[in-house]
Automatic annotation (TrEMBL):
Coiled-coil stretches noted in the UniProt entry, renumbered to this chain: none
Signal sequence, start to end: none
Stated name of the protein: HAT C-terminal dimerisation domain-containing protein
GO molecular function: protein dimerization activity
């Protein structure tokens, strides 16, 4: 729903670059989420283990650069998939079903009688004003 809203407004502003802008936003959201996961996992492991030395830190960075990015992504996806097969970010970006709010149509404990047989705007206003 969030991306669909962006798509709607971007298409009104500039339809020729709408898809490009949406893809750019998606990429940035995934990068931001990846950074969040790294920070979250490093903060939990840092508390349980000691900090690496400068030499160890450089070797870790070199090894990470040498890894295949696709394999890193596959490992990441396999670790961050929930029961539905979607990551937390996919769940956040997914459209939520719109459910009608029953309380929007409720008149509370009021009893309908011949004077309140329908919810005309004047009746609704009177009910709201006399509620207290």
């Amino acid at each position: 729903m969030k991306l669909e809203a962006l798509r709607f407004y971007y298409s009104k502003l500039d339809a020729s670059t709408c898809d490009e802008k949406i893809n750019n936003i998606k990429e940035k959201m995934y990068k931001l989420f990846d950074e969040y996961v790294i920070v979250k996992s490093s903060s939990s492991t840092a508390s349980s283990s000691q900090q690496p030395t400068v030499e160890e830190d450089f070797s870790i960075e070199e090894n990470q650069e040498m890894d295949d990015p696709y394999n890193e992504y596959i490992n990441y996806v396999s670790q961050n998939v929930n029961v539905n097969g979607k990551s937390e970010l996919d769940l956040y970006l997914a459209e939520t079903p719109l459910e009608p709010n029953e309380s929007a149509f409720s008149i509370g404990a009021r009893v309908l009688n011949k004077y309140r047989a329908s919810l005309l705007p004047s009746n609704v206003q009177a009910l709201i004003l006399t509620q207290n």
